[in-house]
């Protein structure tokens, strides 16, 4: 990349940032906008994407927690799955039990449901995580990570059996914008036709509309005429939306939303803020926190079809052998540090017990700059009960994979080639997140306190 | 990220290849990182500096700058004893981004070799070096 040389070539890098940009990276339709607005670009899984804009990654991270931010996520892979065998295919190879959707479906649903889960191989290792959108009878969208569309399509095709369906990798044809943060609905309401009809009610992990204006499902439109699929999802832990439009409408839609969001503090945000926001929200990065090891003993049990008492699964599926590996598989656990110092997971970094015992490895280590410790508690900049004068100095956080489950509250050391840092094994990291707050509160009122949060 | 011509390289300081700057103030040398370096690193979130009284050789690592995505070492542009560190950076590490040649200074050094400073680059030489990196 231009000026890519770090401090004397001695820079440590996370996630391949600050590397030379190859000329063969893919570009989203917003690439020119990003570069002309001063974004620092970096290669990410075959795409050249904004790492941060001139406002800086810390301001972007804070904007999503305190106001709102928008991300170009058009690098993600979108797969269309259509046909009478689609449901059975997903039931046989997706880690979520979608049976409740089928019972509801006596006709095209007025509003769709989405679910976060994963596709596993026969060993129970992760091929990729995914959000599956139930559009209509026998009609699904599968959204997977950048560069993963082809692999997931091949996997689904290999799982075909007697199921009848058609797969279409729509990557590159669909533009996607993530509008995230407590002010997101107020911004979106300004750019939607009939915003209340579109947004009320819309519960967490549900969606409306379609990005193809010719689809009978296309009943949500932006003021620029674009048909849009509006989904109350995201990957920051904060209240917000994922918006899918045709690629040709992406640039205009980006500008429309940005202008509407000015009064709400909306700023464009890059991959660095996305990474630190998701880590603080205890969300995994595929290929880093979940990957070629058994998808079990982790902080995401909701991504598996556990029965009510957690003793088994409610369905059979490819990879369900993970259930039998619970006693032998390693454990993935979240941690939070005591200041923003990080270790480099690429060194690699190891987890050390109190007596220096090697306990496992570090999967993710980033800094959430919206949080800090006072005594034994972690507060966020938006915590309603934060102490007077609280200033978030940031905490390192992320995930470790250890051979034996560590008790919550245990302090361990993370060690890379450069340093050791002390961190605490925790269940949750950034408190007072907004993702679950009721839509009605988020449209009508400003400055919503956490006492109004969904439990 | 800024273009080279958008960055600021005052001719009142001298520059090292590793992107630190050094400025003489009486018999002390003030050290920080260049506008180019802070722009490359992005937001600085934590600064680790040495103790007053520590001695370092020229080119030796004296601390680290932590940004949101990277950790980078900083190196002595001159040899000498640390006589002061910028305590403001503990509360406000972002000063390195906001004012790299002023409030974002890192350390003050009592140099052991008067020629170290002269051997560093002028603003023009440093800018030429950066253009060579493009």
What does this structure look like?
The complex is a heterodimer of chains A (455) and B (134). Chain A has an eleven-stranded mixed sheet. In chain A, 18% of the residues lie in helices and 27% in strands. In chain A, helix 2 packs across helix 9. Chain A is of the alpha+beta class and 455 residues long. Chain A contains ten helices and 22 strands. Among the domains of chain A are: 31-74 and 173-278, Gyrase A, domain 2 (2-Layer Sandwich), CATH 3.30.1360; 330-431, Beta Barrel (Elongation Factor Tu (Ef-tu), domain 3). The N and C termini of chain A lie far apart (46 Å). The radius of gyration of chain A is 21 Å and the shape is globular. Chain B has a single domain (4-133), classed as RNA polymerase II/Efflux pump adaptor protein, barrel-sandwich hybrid domain (OB fold (Dihydrolipoamide Acetyltransferase, E2P)). Chain B has helices at 35-41, 88-91, 95-98, 115-118, 123-133, and strands spanning 14-15, 20-25, 28-33, 44-48, 55-56, 61-67, 71-75, 80-85, 107-111. In chain B, strands 1-2-3-9-8-5 form a six-stranded antiparallel sheet. A three-stranded antiparallel sheet of chain B has the order 4-6-7. In chain B, a hairpin with a 3-residue loop joins strand 6 (61-67) and strand 7 (71-75). Chain B is of the alpha+beta class and 134 residues long. Chain B is globular. The A-B interface holds A 2-8, 10-15, 17-18, 38-41, 51-52, 56-59, 61, 272-273, 275-276, 339-342, 344, 366-367, 369, 391, 393-394, 418 and B 1-4, 17-19, 33, 36-37, 39-43, 45-46, 48, 64-75, 91, 94, 97, 130, 133-134. Strand 1 of chain A pairs antiparallel with strand 7 (71-75) of chain B.
């Amino acid at each position: 990349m231009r000026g890519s040389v770090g401090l004397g070539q001695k820079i440590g890098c996370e996630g391949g940032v600050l590397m030379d940009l190859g000329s063969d990276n893919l570009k989203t339709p917003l690439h020119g906008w990003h570069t002309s607005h001063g974004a620092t670009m970096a290669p990410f899984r075959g795409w050249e994407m904004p790492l941060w804009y001139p406002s800086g990654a810390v301001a972007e991270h804070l904007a999503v927690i305190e106001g709102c931010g928008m991300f170009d996520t058009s690098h993600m892979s979108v797969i269309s799955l259509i046909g009478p065998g689609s449901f059975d295919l997903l039931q046989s190879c997706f880690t979520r039990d979608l049976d409740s959707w089928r019972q509801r479906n006596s006709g095209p649903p007025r509003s769709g449901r989405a679910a976060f889960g994963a596709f596993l191989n026969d060993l129970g290792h992760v091929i990729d995580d995914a959000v599956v959108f139930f559009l209509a009878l026998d009609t699904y969208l599968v959204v997977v990570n950048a560069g993963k569309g082809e692999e997931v399509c091949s996997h689904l095709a290999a799982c075909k059996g007697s199921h009848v369906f058609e797969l279409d990798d729509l990557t590159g044809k669909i533009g996607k914008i993530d509008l995230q943060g407590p002010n997101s609905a107020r911004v979106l309401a300004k750019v939607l036709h009939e915003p209340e009809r579109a947004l009320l009610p819309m519960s967490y992990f549900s969606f409306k509309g379609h990005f193809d204006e010719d689809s009978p499902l296309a009943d949500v439109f932006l003021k620029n005429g674009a048909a849009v699929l509006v989904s109350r999802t995201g990957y920051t832990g904060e209240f917000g939306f994922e918006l899918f439009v045709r690629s040709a409408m992406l640039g205009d839609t980006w500008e429309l939303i940005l202008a509407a969001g000015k009064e709400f503090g909306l700023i464009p945000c890059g991959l660095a803020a996305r990474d630190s926001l998701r880590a603080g929200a205890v969300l995994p990065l595929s290929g880093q926190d979940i990957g070629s090891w058994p998808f079990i003993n982790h902080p995401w049990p909701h991504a598996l079809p556990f029965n009510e008492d957690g003793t088994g699964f409610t369905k059979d599926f490819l990879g369900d052998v993970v259930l039998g590996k619970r006693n032998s598989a390693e454990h993935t656990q979240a941690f939070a540090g005591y200041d923003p110092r990080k270790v480099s997971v690429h060194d690699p970094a190891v987890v050390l017990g109190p007596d220096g015992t090697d306990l496992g490895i570090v999967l993710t280590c980033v800094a959430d700059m919206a949080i800090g410790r006072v005594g034994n508690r972690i507060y966020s900049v938006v915590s309603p009960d934060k102490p007077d004068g609280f200033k978030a100095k940031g905490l390192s956080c992320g995930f470790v994979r250890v051979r034996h489950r560590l008790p919550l509250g245990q302090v361990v050391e993370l060690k890379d080639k450069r340093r050791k840092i002390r961190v605490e094994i925790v269940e949750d990291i950034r408190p007072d997140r907004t993702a679950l707050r009721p839509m009605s509160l988020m449209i009508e009122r400003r400055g919503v306190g956490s006492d109004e949060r969904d439990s | 990220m800024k273009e080279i011509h958008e960055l600021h390289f005052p001719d009142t300081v001298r520059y090292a290849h590793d992107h630190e700057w050094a400025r003489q103030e009486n018999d002390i040398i003030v050290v920080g990182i260049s506008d180019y370096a802070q722009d490359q690193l992005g937001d600085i979130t934590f600064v680790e500096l040495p103790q007053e009284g520590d001695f370092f050789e020229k080119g030796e690592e004296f601390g680290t700058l932590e940004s949101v995505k990277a950790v980078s070492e900083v190196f002595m542009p001159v040899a000498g004893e640390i006589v002061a560190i910028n305590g403001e950076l503990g509360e406000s590490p972002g000063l390195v981004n906001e004012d790299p040649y002023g409030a974002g200074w890192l350390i003050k050094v009592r140099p052991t070799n008067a020629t170290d400073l002269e051997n560093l680059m002028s603003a023009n030489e440093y800018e030429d070096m950066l253009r060579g990196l493009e």
